Amino acid sequence: MDEIEPQQNQGLLSTLRNMPDYQRRRVALVFFAGVAVIVGITFLFGGFGGGDEEKSRGLVTLHMWNVFDPSDVWHPVIREFEEKNPNVRIVYTQKPAEDYRADLTEALADGAGPDIYAIHNTWLPIEINRLISFNDADSAATSVKMNELLLRFPEVVQTDFVRNGELYALPISIDTIALYYNIDLLNSESILEPPSTWDELAQDVRILRKFDPSGNIVLAGAALGAGANINRNSDIISALMMQYGARMNNAQGDGVMFSQSVSKEGIISFPGQDALSFYTSFANSSSANYTWDLSQDDSVNAFTQGRAAMMLNYSFARPIIARDNPELRFGVAPLPQKAGELVKINYANYWGLGVSEQSAVADIAWRFINFLAEEDNAKIYFEQTDKPPALKSLIDDFQRDEELAVFANQILTAKSWITGDASAAEKILTDMVDNAVRGAQTIPDAINRAANDINQILSEL
Question: Which CATH number is correct for 178-348+407-459, 3.40.190.10, 1.10.10.60, 3.30.420.10, 3.30.1490.480?
Fold first, then answer.
């Protein structure tokens, strides 16, 4: 075969040489036209590089699932990315929060899940096997190393989204708990500034609260102390435990320690128990801090309708309050801290974007997430929404809005912990609080039961 092909080629060349000029021109014209068609088709359907089926067609489609943000919030920054990457199209889908994990699990099981999807900052232990890390993705288009990328974000991002030296997700916004207060109610009692410590908050509660002649709560000094009727109660008690000095997880992150004793300067204490005892004192009728009980309305509703002078919540409560009671004058102050402590501890609640390990275009998906981690591109997103940033470099940009500045300024000191299954852990902590409030369990029994239940979850992962 190797000897025949050159002879065939020589015969073809002879034939061409012996043709009249006009025939040679026709052959040449047909030849070059054919080459042009082949080249055009090649570029149209993906170039010469090959790769997977979707890349070979030229146009790459990334499917992205998110929670809470409507599509119009994301369209401008997606459009900016698509203009810089003309072979990429991003299809954005907002999913209902209540069905999100179920829908995601079903779609991934069917092999029809998104390329990029949102994960809560507490979900990595239960999502890690469904994600491809920044490190493992074939990210030829990504020019920054993981550590350089992480320097743009607060430390909590590394705590939440890095495992065994690999990065699995990045946020665009980080929310933190802050103190909401009713300006008119504080003014009426000559309280000049919102409390900055828990001791000050307890003092203000005693001034602000009101009871009827039968001892029923008419005005709560703060919506605080219970479980089921306090929005984000599990995050509040977690923040308190951390501020009191409890170790939430062991060094490996596969167990919890918040119920255990701590030795400091030869003194043994149970900071988790102390935090729970202080928190539930606001719903304990025999406590000097009593201002709330299990019969009260949801904390956000109570604050919005003027039946609670203060509450703790995230920035997402701002538009809810403004919508439901436009006449309410309220302010936002930093989360109270433990008196005498120099190091502030705040609490984070946020979502990151990760890439499914099923994605055939994981490198491009991570390129988009990396694109969002650039300051100018993140600003496009924040022009459409009223949320605090995740990038440290953007904190100064949020100082013009006094309320939003509170949340932005807290991200540098924000903490979180590994719960295994966030929804299950929230219920466990809510039950811990309410069982202690009802007297169904002592403080030590309630916290030990909660720790054991969460350890059981972590052991099954």
Answer: 3.40.190.10
